[in-house]
Amino acid sequence: MTNRNSGRIRKKTTSKSPNKSKQKKFRERSFDIKKFSMVVMAISVLIFIFILSSSTGLIGDALARFFEGLFGKFSLAFPILLFASFYLIYREKFRDNLSRMLLIYSIYFLTLAISSKDYIRNELAWSVEYSAFKGNLGGGWFGGLVGFYTLSFIGHLGLYILYATLIGSLIINVSPFTYKEFFLKLRDGFIILGIGIKHLSQKAYLKIREKIDESKTKKSLKEERIPSIRINNNLSDNPPRKAIKKRPSRKEEDRPREEIQKDLKNDDLIRDYKSKQVEFADLNEDLKREFADYSYPPVNLLKDVNAEGGIDNSEIRAKAGIIEETLESFGIDGKIVQIDVGPTVTCYELKPARGVKVSKIVNLADDLSLSLATSGIRIEAPIPGKSHVGIEVANDKKEIVGFKEIISSTQFIKSRHAIPFAMGKSISGEPIISAIEKMPHLLVSGATGSGKSVCINTIIMSILYKHSPDEVKLLLIDPKVVELSIYNGIPHLIMPVITDPKKASSSLFWAISEMERRYKLFEENQVRDIKGYKRAAETDDSMENLPYIVVIVDELSDLMMTAASEVEDYITRLAQKSRACGIHLIIATQRPTVDVITGTIKANIPSRISFAVTSQIDSRTILDMQGAEKLLGKGDMLYASSDSMKPLRIQGAFISDEEVLRVVDYIKGSSETNYNEEAIEKIEENVTADLEDEDELLDEAIKVIVADQTASVSMLQRKLKIGYARAGRIIDQLEQKGIVGGYEGSKPRKVLVDRTQIENL
Predict the structure, then answer these.
(1) pLDDT (tens digit per residue) in 196-224
(2) In 3-state terms, what secondary structure has residue 374?
(3) Which CATH fold would you assign to the domain 430-676?
(4) For 53-90, what is each residue's pLDDT tens digit?
(5) Residue ranges covered by each domain of the chain
(6) Fewer CB atoms < 10 Å away: N or C end of the chain?
């Protein structure tokens, strides 16, 4: 055992000894290379100093003259290359950079050869003129030697081609791209360069052409002016009249600043909405239809809005000049061609120069707002039907658009729409009258105080002033209780204003049943829609009168919290099918979130009105685009109709609570209520049935799941000490009320409300 072990030990020692000696030799050799590299680097530094300085003594001057004779004017680069090469050897990186160093040395030697080509004789290889060697000319003796053989083999042209090839190879070698990628990038660069040259040449051609046209115009004007000058010179002491020059057409960038300011002083640019006289008619004279149970309210119940003084044209022109100057400072050429002054905003119509991107103007909204020292700038690019960009700036003095003015206009009184709706005024001052039957359903949204409730009041008041109860009926749902309760008792109501969320879903279900009943009547009378039915009823007195029905929900979010699934289903069915039978939905909410305005509801309600909202996300939820976050509030709205590509900015008509109260009191005093008792009974029956079906422990179950923020059948079994079947029924009832989410397998159901919402309910 000992012999074997000792033999193994000796074998190990003999195997290790050669490795140690090899490693020792390698260390010594590597040490020698590094030492030699350091010496060469030091020598290269000395050579660099000798060549650069003239005060290095006899040895320094001699070495400097020697290297200058060898390498000529490029002698200073030799010690730099020498230092770099041995520095890489010292750092053991020379192999990695071998190809680059070879390319650099080759380029250096070819540079010497090109510099020495004028001093090379054709007889011998080193027959460089002595004067060139001595006088530090060209590439020195070394350049002459390389140049002689290079020119002998490939000539002058080949020398330059080889030189360019080596430089290109070095660039590619240094760059992070492969040869293929580099040439593709180079090709793309040439393409872009060609496009730029083409664009510049076209622009230069247009400028030259315009200058030629301008000179021709000046010449013709000069010729036309000569006879008039002669005639005026023959007059008496009166000074000669100057001939009127026609301004030649020039591009906007050639116009001086003074001319632009002069153009802006033209009052024809500014169109004040007050200068447009709204044509009025007598609303009560127009409505001479006789109805036994309804008397139209007089217009004098409404107040006239006291308009302030006219606009300051100088201030408007100053802002137009600031807009042009600001855009010009960002390299955008354009001209203000028209200014529309509205009640709350002023629209400056900018005609951009050819080649200006519209997106560049839109992106400067904040910069324009800073220059004008105002907020709420909105840019409409382009204005529909025009080749202009609309820059909408808030007025310093905002004015109210009165509801009386809009309903007294000819556009409203002479409207042939079935259910006209007085919305307000556009930026240009035109009264905007929309038709509810063409919408056919409307979604209204906006933050608190933006004008949403006033808009609902103007819709109802437009109906009261234009239609009798036999023509239009109203179904008002007001979960907030205080907004629409003032209309209780008017004859247009199908039933009293519904404030109970439980009755709200039942009333929507009644609207669905009424829709189905009307379609059966259409089938019996062989008509397609309510217009055809009304035409047939004109000749047949036995046919039932079917008025239009407008369903108004003032706060959708409250209904979605109580019975989300039912309300969404009912609204979707009505929105999809009720248009042809004369039932129209108007839904308002101040919380435009995706859980309130769901995708299904949005898809079936094409017309939207958005008042001021707090964020771009809310604006996109309502209008599918941004812009509503820049509105000014107090009736400033964007109206996106079903037949328009872009929303229209409108200042909504204002009607106060006192005016509404006076009109409602007048209608109540002159007309009797005419509720649909059958509809009321059906809704009460549905609510009673729902209450009877509700479990006695439902309220306690709601408290439990809201406190724990989790809901499952097993949890209710433990907490309420009930059986599985009863707990399952309670979960189903909670799902119908929108308190818990749907079934998710083994996971607990999601709780959709919190403690605050439950307390509000």
Answers:
(1) 787 788 778 777 877 787 676 655 544 44
(2) coil
(3) Rossmann fold (3.40.50)
(4) 766 677 777 777 777 777 777 777 778 877 887 787 77
(5) 26-181, 255-286+308-394, 430-676, 694-760
(6) N
